[in-house]
Design a protein that fits this description.
The complex is a heterodimer of chains A (194) and B (85). Helices cover 51% and strands 25% of the residues of chain A. By secondary structure, chain A is an alpha+beta fold. Chain A has a 4-stranded antiparallel β-sheet with strand order 1-2-3-4. Chain A starts with a helix and ends in an 11-residue tail after the last helix. Chain B is built from 2 helices and no strands. The longest helix of chain B is centred in the middle third of the chain and has 30 residues. The radius of gyration of chain B is 19 Å and the shape is elongated. The interface between A and B is medium-sized, with 26 and 33 residues.
Chain lengths: 194, 85
Protein backbone atom coordinates (compact mmCIF):
# COMPACT_ATOMS: atom_id res chain seq x y z
CA UNK A 1 0.00 0.00 0.00
CA UNK A 2 2.82 2.33 0.92
CA UNK A 3 4.73 1.57 -2.28
CA UNK A 4 1.69 2.11 -4.47
CA UNK A 5 0.68 5.34 -2.76
CA UNK A 6 4.13 6.85 -3.22
CA UNK A 7 4.91 5.18 -6.57
CA UNK A 8 8.06 3.57 -5.18
CA UNK A 9 10.28 1.55 -7.46
CA UNK A 10 10.48 -2.22 -6.91
CA UNK A 11 12.69 -2.88 -3.91
CA UNK A 12 12.68 0.76 -2.86
CA UNK A 13 11.84 1.31 0.79
CA UNK A 14 11.46 4.30 3.07
CA UNK A 15 14.45 4.68 5.37
CA UNK A 16 13.42 7.86 7.14
CA UNK A 17 10.41 10.14 7.58
CA UNK A 18 10.88 13.84 8.25
CA UNK A 19 8.13 15.91 9.82
CA UNK A 20 7.83 19.21 11.61
CA UNK A 21 8.57 19.12 15.31
CA UNK A 22 5.62 18.40 17.63
CA UNK A 23 6.23 21.68 19.48
CA UNK A 24 5.07 23.60 16.39
CA UNK A 25 1.76 21.82 16.50
CA UNK A 26 1.54 22.15 20.28
CA UNK A 27 1.40 25.95 20.05
CA UNK A 28 -1.59 25.70 17.71
CA UNK A 29 -3.18 23.14 20.01
CA UNK A 30 -2.95 25.53 22.95
CA UNK A 31 -4.71 28.26 20.96
CA UNK A 32 -7.51 25.87 19.97
CA UNK A 33 -7.75 24.66 23.58
CA UNK A 34 -8.27 28.17 24.93
CA UNK A 35 -10.74 28.95 22.16
CA UNK A 36 -12.71 25.86 23.20
CA UNK A 37 -12.68 26.98 26.85
CA UNK A 38 -13.55 30.60 26.11
CA UNK A 39 -17.37 30.24 26.15
CA UNK A 40 -17.25 28.41 29.47
CA UNK A 41 -15.08 31.13 30.99
CA UNK A 42 -17.34 33.77 29.49
CA UNK A 43 -20.40 32.08 30.98
CA UNK A 44 -18.89 32.01 34.45
CA UNK A 45 -17.80 35.64 34.18
CA UNK A 46 -21.21 36.78 32.91
CA UNK A 47 -23.05 34.94 35.68
CA UNK A 48 -20.75 36.55 38.21
CA UNK A 49 -20.78 40.14 37.00
CA UNK A 50 -24.06 40.66 35.16
CA UNK A 51 -27.08 42.24 36.87
CA UNK A 52 -29.27 39.73 38.72
CA UNK A 53 -32.01 39.37 36.08
CA UNK A 54 -29.51 38.71 33.27
CA UNK A 55 -27.60 36.20 35.38
CA UNK A 56 -30.87 34.47 36.33
CA UNK A 57 -31.83 34.34 32.62
CA UNK A 58 -28.57 32.58 31.80
CA UNK A 59 -28.87 30.16 34.69
CA UNK A 60 -32.45 29.26 33.80
CA UNK A 61 -31.41 28.05 30.33
CA UNK A 62 -28.80 25.48 31.25
CA UNK A 63 -29.83 22.83 28.65
CA UNK A 64 -29.63 25.41 25.87
CA UNK A 65 -26.25 26.55 27.16
CA UNK A 66 -24.91 22.99 27.32
CA UNK A 67 -26.30 22.26 23.86
CA UNK A 68 -24.67 25.29 22.26
CA UNK A 69 -21.42 24.75 24.12
CA UNK A 70 -21.32 21.11 22.95
CA UNK A 71 -21.62 22.29 19.36
CA UNK A 72 -18.83 24.79 19.95
CA UNK A 73 -16.63 22.00 21.36
CA UNK A 74 -17.43 19.85 18.36
CA UNK A 75 -16.39 22.66 16.04
CA UNK A 76 -13.12 23.13 17.94
CA UNK A 77 -12.52 19.36 17.91
CA UNK A 78 -12.98 19.10 14.15
CA UNK A 79 -10.81 22.17 13.59
CA UNK A 80 -8.08 20.64 15.77
CA UNK A 81 -8.04 17.49 13.65
CA UNK A 82 -8.02 19.46 10.41
CA UNK A 83 -4.90 21.23 11.69
CA UNK A 84 -3.38 17.94 12.82
CA UNK A 85 -4.05 16.34 9.44
CA UNK A 86 -2.32 19.22 7.65
CA UNK A 87 0.59 18.91 10.09
CA UNK A 88 0.95 15.12 9.98
CA UNK A 89 0.55 14.64 6.23
CA UNK A 90 3.22 17.26 5.52
CA UNK A 91 6.24 14.93 5.36
CA UNK A 92 9.46 14.04 3.58
CA UNK A 93 10.01 10.38 2.81
CA UNK A 94 13.67 9.55 2.37
CA UNK A 95 14.21 6.32 0.43
CA UNK A 96 17.40 4.68 -0.85
CA UNK A 97 17.09 6.57 -4.12
CA UNK A 98 15.36 9.88 -3.51
CA UNK A 99 13.48 12.29 -1.30
CA UNK A 100 9.71 12.43 -1.74
CA UNK A 101 8.40 15.77 -0.53
CA UNK A 102 4.70 15.61 0.36
CA UNK A 103 3.54 19.16 0.97
CA UNK A 104 0.06 19.19 2.50
CA UNK A 105 -0.81 22.85 2.10
CA UNK A 106 -4.47 22.39 2.97
CA UNK A 107 -7.13 19.71 3.01
CA UNK A 108 -7.65 19.99 -0.73
CA UNK A 109 -4.19 21.20 -1.70
CA UNK A 110 -1.40 18.62 -1.80
CA UNK A 111 1.85 18.76 -3.68
CA UNK A 112 4.21 15.80 -4.15
CA UNK A 113 7.74 16.29 -5.50
CA UNK A 114 10.66 13.92 -6.01
CA UNK A 115 14.34 14.67 -5.75
CA UNK A 116 16.96 12.09 -6.69
CA UNK A 117 20.10 12.13 -4.56
CA UNK A 118 22.35 12.75 -7.53
CA UNK A 119 20.57 16.06 -8.15
CA UNK A 120 21.34 17.45 -4.72
CA UNK A 121 23.80 20.29 -4.60
CA UNK A 122 23.69 21.36 -0.98
CA UNK A 123 21.75 20.83 2.23
CA UNK A 124 21.49 23.64 4.75
CA UNK A 125 20.17 23.57 8.29
CA UNK A 126 19.12 26.60 10.30
CA UNK A 127 18.31 26.30 13.99
CA UNK A 128 17.33 29.67 15.35
CA UNK A 129 16.14 30.47 18.85
CA UNK A 130 16.31 29.05 22.36
CA UNK A 131 13.43 26.58 22.09
CA UNK A 132 14.49 25.17 18.70
CA UNK A 133 18.02 24.75 20.06
CA UNK A 134 16.91 22.84 23.15
CA UNK A 135 14.26 20.79 21.36
CA UNK A 136 16.49 20.25 18.31
CA UNK A 137 14.40 21.39 15.41
CA UNK A 138 15.06 23.82 12.58
CA UNK A 139 14.67 24.69 8.92
CA UNK A 140 15.99 22.18 6.42
CA UNK A 141 16.71 23.26 2.86
CA UNK A 142 17.91 21.02 0.04
CA UNK A 143 19.28 22.85 -2.97
CA UNK A 144 19.03 21.14 -6.32
CA UNK A 145 21.39 21.25 -9.24
CA UNK A 146 18.76 22.27 -11.80
CA UNK A 147 18.40 25.99 -12.40
CA UNK A 148 14.63 26.06 -12.64
CA UNK A 149 13.85 23.62 -9.82
CA UNK A 150 12.52 24.90 -6.58
CA UNK A 151 14.49 24.05 -3.46
CA UNK A 152 13.06 21.48 -1.10
CA UNK A 153 12.24 23.23 2.15
CA UNK A 154 10.97 21.77 5.42
CA UNK A 155 10.46 24.38 8.15
CA UNK A 156 10.89 23.38 11.81
CA UNK A 157 11.93 19.84 10.94
CA UNK A 158 12.72 17.37 13.73
CA UNK A 159 16.42 16.57 14.23
CA UNK A 160 17.54 18.39 11.08
CA UNK A 161 21.21 17.50 11.51
CA UNK A 162 20.42 13.78 11.57
CA UNK A 163 18.34 14.20 8.43
CA UNK A 164 21.16 16.09 6.76
CA UNK A 165 23.60 13.29 7.58
CA UNK A 166 21.26 10.65 6.18
CA UNK A 167 20.67 12.57 2.96
CA UNK A 168 24.37 13.41 2.54
CA UNK A 169 25.41 9.79 3.03
CA UNK A 170 22.92 8.69 0.39
CA UNK A 171 24.01 11.50 -1.90
CA UNK A 172 27.65 10.46 -1.55
CA UNK A 173 26.77 6.84 -2.30
CA UNK A 174 24.94 7.89 -5.45
CA UNK A 175 27.86 10.07 -6.49
CA UNK A 176 30.30 7.18 -6.01
CA UNK A 177 28.03 4.81 -7.91
CA UNK A 178 27.99 7.23 -10.82
CA UNK A 179 31.77 7.56 -10.62
CA UNK A 180 32.27 3.79 -10.74
CA UNK A 181 29.79 3.31 -13.55
CA UNK A 182 31.54 5.98 -15.62
CA UNK A 183 35.07 4.84 -14.85
CA UNK A 184 34.31 1.16 -15.30
CA UNK A 185 35.94 0.27 -11.98
CA UNK A 186 34.32 -2.27 -9.71
CA UNK A 187 31.56 -0.79 -7.61
CA UNK A 188 31.96 -1.81 -3.99
CA UNK A 189 28.22 -1.34 -3.50
CA UNK A 190 27.33 -4.01 -6.11
CA UNK A 191 27.15 -6.75 -3.49
CA UNK A 192 24.60 -4.92 -1.43
CA UNK A 193 22.59 -3.97 -4.51
CA UNK A 194 22.23 -0.41 -3.27
CA UNK B 1 -41.47 21.85 26.82
CA UNK B 2 -40.08 25.30 27.51
CA UNK B 3 -41.70 28.54 26.41
CA UNK B 4 -40.81 30.16 23.13
CA UNK B 5 -38.14 32.79 22.79
CA UNK B 6 -40.75 35.57 22.98
CA UNK B 7 -41.74 36.02 26.61
CA UNK B 8 -42.54 39.06 28.69
CA UNK B 9 -39.87 38.38 31.32
CA UNK B 10 -37.18 37.96 28.63
CA UNK B 11 -35.24 41.22 28.27
CA UNK B 12 -34.50 40.34 24.66
CA UNK B 13 -38.18 39.90 23.77
CA UNK B 14 -38.29 43.36 22.21
CA UNK B 15 -36.00 42.09 19.46
CA UNK B 16 -38.53 39.47 18.42
CA UNK B 17 -41.63 41.68 18.34
CA UNK B 18 -43.53 41.18 15.14
CA UNK B 19 -41.82 37.91 14.19
CA UNK B 20 -43.91 34.77 13.70
CA UNK B 21 -44.20 32.46 16.68
CA UNK B 22 -41.53 29.78 16.56
CA UNK B 23 -41.03 27.07 19.12
CA UNK B 24 -37.43 27.32 20.30
CA UNK B 25 -37.08 23.55 20.58
CA UNK B 26 -37.66 23.26 16.83
CA UNK B 27 -34.98 25.86 16.23
CA UNK B 28 -32.51 23.90 18.35
CA UNK B 29 -33.37 20.66 16.55
CA UNK B 30 -32.70 22.34 13.22
CA UNK B 31 -29.39 23.70 14.56
CA UNK B 32 -28.48 20.21 15.75
CA UNK B 33 -29.28 18.63 12.39
CA UNK B 34 -27.30 21.25 10.49
CA UNK B 35 -24.35 20.74 12.87
CA UNK B 36 -24.53 16.97 12.35
CA UNK B 37 -24.56 17.47 8.59
CA UNK B 38 -21.50 19.72 8.69
CA UNK B 39 -19.73 17.37 11.10
CA UNK B 40 -20.48 14.36 8.86
CA UNK B 41 -19.08 16.18 5.85
CA UNK B 42 -15.89 17.22 7.64
CA UNK B 43 -15.45 13.75 9.14
CA UNK B 44 -15.80 12.16 5.73
CA UNK B 45 -13.12 14.48 4.38
CA UNK B 46 -10.76 13.76 7.30
CA UNK B 47 -11.27 9.98 7.17
CA UNK B 48 -10.72 10.02 3.42
CA UNK B 49 -7.40 11.84 3.89
CA UNK B 50 -6.27 9.47 6.64
CA UNK B 51 -7.19 6.41 4.61
CA UNK B 52 -5.64 7.62 1.38
CA UNK B 53 -2.55 9.44 2.58
CA UNK B 54 -2.00 8.19 6.13
CA UNK B 55 -0.31 4.96 5.06
CA UNK B 56 -2.27 3.20 7.82
CA UNK B 57 0.42 3.79 10.40
CA UNK B 58 -0.26 3.45 14.12
CA UNK B 59 -0.64 7.20 14.75
CA UNK B 60 -3.31 7.53 12.09
CA UNK B 61 -5.20 4.55 13.48
CA UNK B 62 -4.97 6.00 17.00
CA UNK B 63 -6.09 9.41 15.77
CA UNK B 64 -9.07 7.84 14.04
CA UNK B 65 -10.17 6.06 17.21
CA UNK B 66 -9.75 9.14 19.42
CA UNK B 67 -11.53 11.39 16.92
CA UNK B 68 -14.56 9.15 16.55
CA UNK B 69 -14.82 8.37 20.27
CA UNK B 70 -14.66 11.96 21.48
CA UNK B 71 -16.95 13.14 18.68
CA UNK B 72 -19.58 10.59 19.71
CA UNK B 73 -19.32 11.77 23.33
CA UNK B 74 -19.74 15.44 22.38
CA UNK B 75 -22.64 14.77 20.01
CA UNK B 76 -24.22 12.58 22.68
CA UNK B 77 -23.97 15.41 25.21
CA UNK B 78 -25.56 17.81 22.72
CA UNK B 79 -28.36 15.36 22.02
CA UNK B 80 -29.05 14.78 25.72
CA UNK B 81 -29.14 18.56 26.31
CA UNK B 82 -31.51 18.86 23.34
CA UNK B 83 -33.99 16.44 24.95
CA UNK B 84 -34.25 18.77 27.95
CA UNK B 85 -34.98 21.86 25.83
Amino acid sequence: MLASRLNLDPGETIIHEVRRHWFVFLTRTIVIFFAALAPAILYVVLCEFLPANFAALLQSHIPETIFLYSLWLLLAWVFFFVQWTNYYLDVWYVTEKRIIDVDQKGLFHREVSNLRFDKIQDISVEVKGIIPTFLNFGDLRVQTAAEDSANFFMPQAMRPDDVRKIIFSRHNREAEKMHYSESGDKNPYDKTGI
Amino acid sequence: MKNSVVSFDNPLSALFTGLPHVDSSVVFVIIFLVACLIFSTMSTVLLYHWNRYGMNNSKIIFARIVYITVSVVIIGAAFVALTFI
